[in-house]
Amino acid sequence: MSNCYCGNTVSFQDCCEPYIKGIKNAPTAETLMRSRYSAFATGAADYLVNTTHISKRKYHNKRDILAWSQANKWLKLEVLASTETTVTFKAYYLDKNLKAQVHYEHSTFKLENEKWFYVDGEFE
């Protein structure tokens, strides 16, 4: 059994997949962020759009999300800090030229109707 894409030591099926498939809602902002990383790693663009806050969805195109997620090889997620509504993380990946990249972001999340949503992020 391999670890989940998000770095947790349980399988994808027992970790992020139930959130991505809509079986369960992510209980915390950090859980949502981890499941969104797994969604990038697995090309689950619908989940990424659906978990983006409605006020920000017009800035996120499903086709572009899918293309970006599939153009990269996702290697590792490192959560540096989290609060109830924010998560600071580094996502390690190889770009389409197989060049190592690090996406460093401080993300903000919002809880609405018992569901967490990604609002925006500050990039380093």
UniProtKB/TrEMBL annotation:
Annotated Pfam families: YchJ_M-like
Entry coiled-coil feature ranges: none
Gene3D superfamilies: 3.10.450.50
InterPro entries: NTF2-like_dom_sf (IPR032710), YchJ-like_M (IPR048469)
Ranges for domain YchJ-like middle NTF2-like: 28-121
Name under which the protein is recorded: YchJ family metal-binding protein
